[in-house]
Each structure stands twice: as C-alpha cells, then as structure tokens.
UniProtKB/TrEMBL annotation:
Family designation: Belongs to the acyl-CoA dehydrogenase family.
Domain of life: Bacteria
Pfam families tied to this protein: Acyl-CoA_dh_1, Acyl-CoA_dh_C, Acyl-CoA_dh_M, Acyl-CoA_dh_N
Name used for this protein in its record: 3-methylmercaptopropionyl-CoA dehydrogenase
Origin species: OM182 bacterium MED-G28
UniProt-listed InterPro entries: Acyl-CoA_dh-like_C_dom (IPR025878), Acyl-CoA_Oxase/DH_mid-dom (IPR006091), Acyl-CoA_Oxase/DH_mid-dom_sf (IPR046373), AcylCo_DH-like_C (IPR036250), AcylCo_DH/oxidase_C (IPR009075), AcylCoA_DH/ox_N (IPR013786), AcylCoA_DH/ox_N_sf (IPR037069), AcylCoA_DH/oxidase_NM_dom_sf (IPR009100)
Acyl-CoA oxidase/dehydrogenase middle domain ranges (all copies): 163-272
Gene Ontology molecular function, alphabetical: flavin adenine dinucleotide binding; oxidoreductase activity, acting on the CH-CH group of donors
Lineage per the UniProt record: Bacteria, Pseudomonadati, Pseudomonadota, Gammaproteobacteria, OMG group
Protein's UniProt keywords contain Oxidoreductase: yes
Keywords: FAD, Flavoprotein, Oxidoreductase
Length: 597
C-alpha cells in the first residue's frame, strides 16, 4: 500500500498564488497575525501527523475495525496513541474561540488539515471533526455556563463531541423525530430516545463524550419547528469540572458497514439522561443548520482527501506497471513492455483524477475563505455577501466534491486493474471509505434539492447572480492576459449556458413544482462543473503568471497548466449533456405509476 503524502505543493500554490491568503487575512483584525510563515509552519506539522501517525494505522484500522462488547467500544490498535498525540499537539482547538481555550485560527487552515487527515485516515479524522462541529454549535448557541464547563475540555481534546440527530424512522426528515425532553425541577431536562448511526457515539479515546441531541418537549409544535437541541454528557460534570456520575447514556451496538470501519457508528440509547438546553426552545434545528455549512464542507473534504490518496497510488502504479506497448511504438525497448502510463486511456483516468482533485481542493478553499470572511470581516456588507456566497457554494462543494472524490477512487481502482480490487494497494479501502461522504450530512440528492429549490428557485436566481458577479470580476481582471483568452472564452460560454438553464428552470418551476426535483441533480452537477471551471481559470492564470516570472517549480507549473488544458478540452464539454438532461424536465420521471416500477 502506498504511503500518503500531504499535497503541500498544491496547498501552498493555492493559498499564495491563487487566493493571496496573506492579503485576505491581513484585511481582518482577527486574522491579521495569520501570516504566510505561520500557515506554512502549521501545515508542515499537520502533514507530519498525517504521514507519520495516521497513514500507518489506516489499513490496520480498516482490517481490525472497532470492537463492541457489552456497551463498550474499543478503537483499533494505535488509535488511542494517535489521538493522544493529536490532543497534546493542540489540534482539537485549532479554530476554537480563544475565550474558551481555542486558538482562533481561520477555517481555511483547518480545511486543508482536514483534507490531509481524511486522506491519510478517514476513520480517525471523523472522531476529530465531530468534536469540532459540536464545539462550533456550543460556541454559537450555548449559554456562558455551558461554554465555560464544556468548551475548554473539548478544545484540549480531553472530551469529544457528537451530533445525535438521526433516529431509525427519521433521517432526512428530522421533523418527525420521537426523542423526548421532559423539564425537571433543576431547569434541565430528562432526555429519552434512541438515536442511530451516531459517529463516535461511544469509544475509548476520551474520558467523556459530549452529545448534542435533538429532542422534542411533550407540548412542542409538530414538525421541525418543535425540535430543541440539548447537551447530554456521557458522564455528568461536577461543579469543579471533575467527571461525575454516569448519565444513563448507553451504546446499544455498533454498525457493521461498508467502509470507515475504524470509526464507531453507534446506536445510542438515552434513558431520562440529564440534558441542558442549547439555544432557545424549539430552535434546535435552525441552530444546528447555522453550523451545517462547516459540517458539510468537511464531507466534501473527505472526498478530496481520499481522491488525493487514490491519485498518488495510481500515479506511481501507472509509471511502474509494464503492460503492452505504446501505440506510437515501444518506449522501453530493453523491457518486455511499456509502463501503462503510455496508454491514452490510462492517462484519461489519471488526468480526470488530478484535474478534479485539485479543482475540488480549490473550491473547498474558496468556500472556506467565504466562511472566514463571513465570520471575521469588519464590514457588515462584506460579511453578508460572503454569507450569501457560502449558502450557494456549500451544497455544491459537499455533493460535487464527494461525488468526484468517489469517482476518483473508483478510477484509481480501475487503473490498477485486479490489483485495485484486492486489499494490498489500498484502493478498494479508499472506494469503501469515500462512499459514505455522498450519503451523510444530508445525502447528495438533498444537497442538489437545496441548491435548486431553496438557493436558486426560491431566491429567484439572486445567489447565482452574485456568483456571476464574482466570475465576471475575475474575467475582467484577466483581459490583458493573452494566454488566458481562449480559456476565458470557453468559461464565458459555460456561464451563459448556466444562465439560460437557470432562467428556464425558475420559469418552469412556476407551472410544475416537480420540475425542481427533476432538474436538481443535473443542475448541481452543472454548477459543480462551472465552479471547477472557475477554479481552473484562477489556477491557470496564476500558473501562467508564475511561469512567466520564473517563480516556483517549473515542472510543477507545466504539469498544472497541461492538466488545466485537459480539463477545459475534455471535461467542460460534459455541460452539454447536463443541460440536455435538465431540459428534458419532469415528465418522463413522473410518468410511471408505483406498480409500473
Ligand atoms: C456511517 C454513518 C455515519 C453517520 N453519522 C451520523 C451522525 O454522527 N449523526 C447523525 O445524526 N446521523 C448520522 N448519520 C446518518 C446520516 O446523516 C443519514 O443516514 C442521512 O442523512 C440520510 O438519512 P437516511 O439514512 O434516513 O435516509 P432517508 O432520509 O430515508 O433517505 C433515503 C433516500 O431518499 C432520498 N430522499 C429523502 N427525502 C427526500 C426528499 N424530500 N426529496 C428527495 N429525495 C429524498 C435521500 O436523498 C436518500 O437518497 C450517519 C450515517 C452513516 C451511514
């Protein structure tokens, strides 16, 4: 199995040449100390953890998996030690609020670290990002007392967190959950119910686990507007912060699943467990949704990380595996065959992986920058604009990066032939581990519906118009860059294609509500392709500038430019079939009766 290498060259190129991270951070008082050198030093350390600590226990963790015995969950060998090192290094609180022991670093930085950790060991990374998600929710919605009790120990990594939303009968439709919260005499609540599929619900990595649980008061309004959010610790916490009595929170079993086998996916039973209200009553779902953009970004990053890992293995294999001869004549005449890299179809697979993986990384960074600007920028109008962009970008980043990530893992597996199907090289594990990123945190079909329905039709195209402004500003900035002109012409055609399609779906949806769901997935794909194309324009422009100035590694820049040309010539034309699919409308989808299926 190939050892994972953190893609630092790409990350530095994107941060410094493409997005000018220094300038963005310098414009915001809370991030002005996040200099290029500091970012480089932190990324370097994170890369060491990914390569030297997490990657070596990835395959063994998959083979051993989590173990369940009478309510106790044991993680595979090496996970506890890796987690201790992770906590001691201060990684748990990297982006946390500095008032409670966090380090206040921007999301841009933690996004790249998450990508590395997911690429090196997705199961391990899940334990960490669930805690980050829970702390973010508490920071924004919990009262001071709860924050003071819980956040410092979560930021130090001593305690971990979970998100307990799903129930056996309620996944996408959380409005119908059954878990109950009954007020008690102390102003807290007795929480009773069963949650399923809870990542890191029980494990042996931390001394306490802080669950964020959705439940309803007995007299709550029906549907999503009656849901409240509660903090329910595994062990109660004494006044002095010490661990107290067990809180009737029990793990009933863990799932046996396709991938991420070293991540404990738990059935959690709450039996009159003491819970503390987070935020206002009946606002649980909307409070959680304010954090959803961060959570969803992580799932796209899982796709990117595993795609990168798969690309690295496939690239080395393609250079070494000798099969057949090049169509243009033998290349290695002293060998029995040429490396499979000589074959155009092998290059198609490798270049598709590379082109989509770096574009996915760029899109994730672009989205993370908008999240940081919406949080830290001193001007309200700038924050608002970034927030609007985030709401359009995130469903696409989540769904398109996880879909392309899975596709890259499968392409890598295909490139290795039979050796991709067996366990030794790690590709089959990547395929299994990547698959879940398309399902959890809102299945990708739901992301597409969110993009098409709420973000496009309901906003009457306003958010799309904002993105068009961003893209046009960039195009305008490149009008004197001769090397970019043919790429920009294609990009402008694509924007125009999306504009016409968007207008048409908005108009059709007024007559038939099924048009939204019928168009949604292909529209998400079209938007993803357009955003990847935008990212490629930015990467190509930066690479041409660096090459002309003689900056950076020449071979790296040449490879990047050629990959960009491949993307523009061979992947962008896929927009045509997506537009045709969207234009076909709802009729053929809705024509069959249930018994005709
Ligand atoms: C390994 C793993 C880890 C998980 N971790 C957590 C966790 O930590 N915490 C937690 O709370 N949950 C967790 N989940 C649950 C996960 O978020 C849900 O499985 C997911 O949201 C989908 O819900 P569901 O499985 O009930 O599918 P359903 O909601 O039943 O959906 C089934 C299918 O129908 C589609 N569908 C549903 N409704 C609509 C609609 N209105 N319009 C169009 N299509 C629709 C969906 O897109 C999907 O394809 C995890 C799941 C797994 C497998």
């Amino acid at each position: 199995m190939g050892a994972y290498r953190a893609p630092l060259a790409d990350i530095h190129f994107l941060l410094n040449d493409v997005f000018q991270a220094d300038e963005v951070f310098a414009a915001m008082p809370e991030t002005e100390e996040v200099t290029k050198d500091l970012v480089a030093a932190i990324l370097e350390e994170a890369a060491k953890i990914a390569e030297q600590m997490l990657s070596p226990i990835n395959q063994s963790g998959d083979q051993e998996a989590c173990h369940f015995d009478n309510g106790i969950v044991t993680t595979p060998k090496g996970f506890k030690e890796a987690y201790e090192a992770y906590s001691e290094g201060g990684w748990s609180g990297l982006t946390g609020d500095t008032n409670y022991g966090g380090q206040g670093m921007p999301k841009v930085l933690s996004a790249m670290i998450e990508e590395m950790f997911f690429g090196a060991n997705s199961s391990f990374c899940l334990y960490t990002i669930l805690t980050t998600g829970a702390t973010l929710t508490l920071t924004h919605h919990a009262n001071e007392e709860l924050k003071n009790y819980f956040l410092p120990k979560m930021f130090s990594g001593q305690w971990s967190g979970t998100m307990c939303l799903t129930e056996p009968h309620a996944g996408t439709d959380l409005g119908i959950i059954n878990s109950k919260a009954v007020p008690d005499a102390q102003g807290s609540y007795g929480i009773t119910g069963t949650k399923i599929f809870i990542t890191a619900g029980e494990h042996d990595l931390t001394e306490n686990i802080i669950h964020l649980v959705l439940a309803k008061l007995p007299d709550a309004p029906a549907g999503p507007r009656g849901i409240s959010l509660f903090l329910v610790p595994k062990f109660l916490v004494e006044k002095d912060g010490a661990i107290g009595a067990a809180n009737n929170v029990n793990c009933g079993s863990i799932e046996h699943k396709m991938g991420i086998k070293a991540s404990a996916t738990c059935v959690m039973n709450f039996e009159n467990s003491k819970g503390f209200l987070v935020g206002e009553l009946n606002c649980g779902l909307s409070n959680l949704f304010t954090m959803m953009n961060y959570e969803r970004l992580s799932m796209g990053l899982q796709g990117n990380g595993l795609a990168e890992s798969s690309y690295q293995i496939a690239r080395e294999y393609a250079k070494e595996r000798l099969q057949g001869r090049a169509a243009s004549g033998p290349k290695l005449t002293d060998k029995v065959a040429d490396p499979i890299l000589v074959h155009p179809d092998v290059r198609r697979m490798l270049l598709t992986m590379r082109a989509n993986t770096i574009a996915g990384r760029a899109l994730s960074l672009y989205s993370a920058f908008q999240l940081d600007i919406s949080r830290f920028h001193p001007e309200k109008t700038v924050r608002k604009r970034a927030d609007q962009l985030v709401s359009l970008l995130i469903p696409v980043q989540k769904a398109y990066c996880s879909d392309r990530g899975f596709e890259s893992c499968v392409l890598g597996q295909q490139l290795l032939g039979g050796h991709g199907y067996v366990a030794e090289w790690g590709l089959e594990q990547n395929v299994r581990d990547a698959r879940i990123s398309q399902i959890y945190e809102g299945a990708n079909g739901i992301q597409a519906l969110d993009l098409m329905g709420r973000k496009t039709v309901r906003s009457d195209g306003e958010l799309w118009a904002l993105l068009v402004e961003e893209m046009n500003t960039f195009i305008e900035s490149q009008k004197n860059n001769t090397e970019m002109q043919s790429h920009l012409a294609k990009f402008q055609d694509l924007i125009q294609e999306v504009q016409v399609t968007t207008d048409r779906v908005i108009a059709n949806a007024k007559n038939n509500p099924d048009e939204i769901g019928a168009a949604s997935y292909a529209y998400m794909d079209l938007m993803g392709l357009t955003l990847f194309c935008f990212m490629w324009q930015r990467m190509l422009a930066a690479a041409y500038i660096a090459r002309a100035a003689g900056n950076g590694n020449k071979e790296y820049l040449e490879g990047l430019i050629k990959c960009g040309v491949f993307f523009m010539q061979r992947l962008v034309p896929k927009s045509k079939s997506l537009v045709a699919e969207i234009n076909a409308g709802a009729e053929s989808l809705m024509a069959l009766t249930a018994s005709e299926f």
